[in-house]
Amino acid sequence: MTTIQQRATASSAKPTPTTHLPQRDLDAPPPLARPSLGKPTAEERFTVVGAWVAALALAWVVTQRLMPLGGPAWLLVTWLVLGLVMSVVTTSMTGRRVDVVDRVVAGIVTSGALVVGAALLSTVVFVVYRGWEPLLHLNFLVDDMAGVGPRDPFDTGGIGHAIVGSAIQLGIAVAVTLPLGIGTAVFMTEVGGRFAVVVRTIVEAMTALPSIVAGLFVYTVLIVALGFPRSGFAAAMALSVMMLPIIARAADVVLRVVPGGLREASLALGASRWRTVWHVVLPTARPGLATALILGVARGVGETSPVLLTSGVATFFVTNPTDGVMNSLPLFIFKGARSPEPMDIERAFAAATVLLVLVLVLFVIARLVARPARARTRRPRRTTRAKRTAEES
Amino acid sequence: MTTLPAQDSVLPTGRPTPRRLSRKATGADRVFELSARTVGATVLVVTGGIGAFLAWQSVPTLERYGWSFFTESAWQPESDVLGIAAVLVGTVSIAGVAMAFAFPLALLTALFISEYAPAGIKSTLVSLVDLMAAVPSIIYGMWGYFLVMPHAAAFSLWLHQNLGWIPIFSVDADPDAAVWDQSRYIGSAFCAGIAVAMMVLPMSCAVMRQVFSQTPPGEKEAALALGATRWGMIRSVVLPFGRGGIIGGTMLGLGRALGETIAVLLIISPDFVIKPRILEVGTSSVSALIAGRFGDASAAQLSALLTAGFVLFVITLIVNTLAAMIVARSRSGAGTDA
Question: What is the CATH number of the domain that holds B232?
């Protein structure tokens, strides 16, 4: 108020009151809209894409024509550096310093993610590319390697014995770890008490156990001390020792997020604690438990080091887990990869492809099992709302 | 006619006694509690037994060799000289190289997924990172050995030529030879570290992304409403908020990198020398030592190997516990399970 009065008195004191008219400055750059966080405008998109395209062209000229830096690696590195420089140049023509920094960081973050994606893609493509040839023969999946020399063609021999061995070892390991792991998780979350805290601490500590040490433990106890032969059973024990803390801990996390209200409702209706666990807590957590189990299996199927110490290598079908050496997929791959024979290496790559597909299938199953609960609660509602808003507009 | 209920003379007429409440389980509950307790005890005995067994087995070795077990670098059981100094240095340098690659990439990928990626593909990217974590280590080992190692050797040569004056980048070879000696640059801690980085990267990335995704949206929107650019918002809200997740995720990855066996065993050329030159051929790690020497080990050597394994376990345990504490104490309170 006072300011207005002061201004009024000041203006009345002036002899000629004037109104300030804004003048258009013809030399000033045209006003720019603030960069919005939504969809980029056409100009922004042109700035970003154009900068990177220009950088690619410039990088090609620099590396392939001006400097003796042949090869795709130099091209990519130069492209990255020049792309960032180009972004700085194009953005600073219109934007402020913060805009430049923002654009450069976006470039760095995106290229970092692209590098990781490229690494994953190169892993998968490389393994499949090196191992596709033996996979064309059906016998590779069903035969064993008994009597097959390293230079025999791919239409003899296969990894059937390794697949069977992996399945048996994992079957035993799951039969041991699943009841123990989920039982421990139930104990830690549903029974509780001071003893449960001790168990949880120890189980969490044992997830740090390197798999090779788990293998060495089983090797020392079962094979050296107790005189048990190297066998599928010993390998299964090593895998169990490795998987048990992982599954127990994952199941514990899953059971802990079961809403307490459900438990209280069940108890208030007069159910005993045992019935509450069996009919309320475990069914609620079933998708999560299944995911924990499948991810544990996916971890176990590819774990080589415990198996390397405990199972020995067989080239033929072994179905009795207590009867001598038994092969498994990761072990077959490891032995093949260390072999000097190119055919062995190719077979190892084919087995690695099979293992990769197996892990992928397990992973997709885990995702599908875990999904329904989420899809039921959120997805449909969002789509109907989206439809309604679309209709209204 | 209304019949009034007659007073039941059997019921006591005084104050009703309260129903007795007991926390003690009865019937099926008692069986349930007992069996759950038994399972818990069994698992405690099994898992705790491993740690106790390792500790107990390492007593004779430590008594025999004393401190020299940690300072001796050679591993020559035939001449009664055993020590893990070289393998510990090798383990740490491989894990260090792995983290040098994995940390920035994991951070950038986590930021990309949580802040930059279009909403439509976000869940796909999260699944891809999880899938990457599920790929067996032997496959990354083969990728590292057959695909990456020649390129890594060429890169090592370039590093040696241009940054060779830094001690860790020096190699015992002539950098400017007309035909460079590739065999001096392969099988190094650097090559193994790249493969191990692929293994630990998705794990760290998953933890970081989880913590980033729990940033309170209100604070992010406040930063944007005040005029911050996307990077300004990340720097002032997301990164400070997720600091615990960044450190914790990195340390979890480090714990995994220290214990990695197969990829390392496949790539390195075993050598028992304390070697700070990470680009040069020949290194070793505790896990590769165990995998390489368990077969022909006598009882005493087995005890020494178990001691080495115990030391490795203690180191990973410390790293993991610190990581779990940091992640749990960060403001986000996110779990450490990826």
Answer: 1.10.3720.10
Q: Give ipTM to 2 decimals.
A: 0.82
Mutate to test the interface with B, among A216, A222, A295 (most CBs of B within 10 A): A216
Q: What residue spans define the domains of chain A? A: 44-133, 160-377
Q: How far is it, in rounded angstroms, from Cα B284 to Cα B89?
A: 8
Count of residues for chain A?
A: 393
Q: Which of A210, A295, A362 lies closest to B259 in CB terms?
A: A210
Q: Each residue of A362-384: b (16+ CB within 10 Å) or e?
A: bbeebeebbeeeeeeeeeeeeee
Residue B337 within any structural domain of the chain: no
The span from the CA of B31 to the CA of A91, in Å, is 71
pLDDT tens-digit profile, chain A (393 residues): 445 555 545 445 556 778 888 777 777 766 655 656 667 788 888 888 999 999 999 998 888 888 777 777 888 888 999 999 999 998 888 778 888 898 899 999 999 999 999 999 999 999 999 888 888 888 888 888 777 777 777 778 788 888 888 888 999 999 999 999 999 999 988 887 888 888 888 888 888 888 888 888 888 888 888 888 888 888 999 999 888 888 888 888 888 888 889 999 998 998 888 888 989 999 888 888 887 888 788 888 888 888 888 887 887 887 777 777 888 888 889 888 888 888 888 889 999 999 999 889 988 888 787 765 544 444 444 455 555 555 554
Distance from CA of B311 to the nearest CA of A (A): 10
Domain assignment of residue B111, yes or no: yes
Query: Closest Cα partner for B150 from B183, B179, B197, B176?
Result: B183
In chain B, which residue's Cα lies nearest the Cα of A217?
B50
Residue B286: name the closest of A131, A189, A212 by CA.
A212
Architecture of the CATH domain A160-377: Orthogonal Bundle (1.10)
Number of domains in chain B: 1
Residues in Cβ contact with B332 at an 8 Å cutoff, skipping those fewer than 6 apart: B211, B214, B215, B241, B242, B244, B245
User: B75-76 and B81-82: which strand pairing?
Assistant: antiparallel
Asked if the structure places residue B334 within a domain, the reply is no
Containing structural domain, residue B202: 65-329
- CA distances to B66, B264, B275 from B164, in Å: 37, 25, 15
Torsion angle of the four alpha carbons B244, B246, B251, B257, in this order, in degrees rounded to the nearest 10:
160
Cβ-nearest to B36 among A190, A363, A367: A190
Number of H helices, E strands in chain A: 17, 0
In chain B the first and final C-alpha atoms are separated, in Å, by: 74
Q: How far apart are CA A140 and CA A138, in angstroms?
A: 5
Radius of gyration of chain A (CA): 33
**One-letter amino acid for residue A159 of the chain:** I
Tokens 């169990």 label which residue?
Answer: A240
Q: Distance between CA atoms of B95 and A63, rounded to whole angstroms?
A: 33
Shortest CA gap A11–chain B (Å): 36
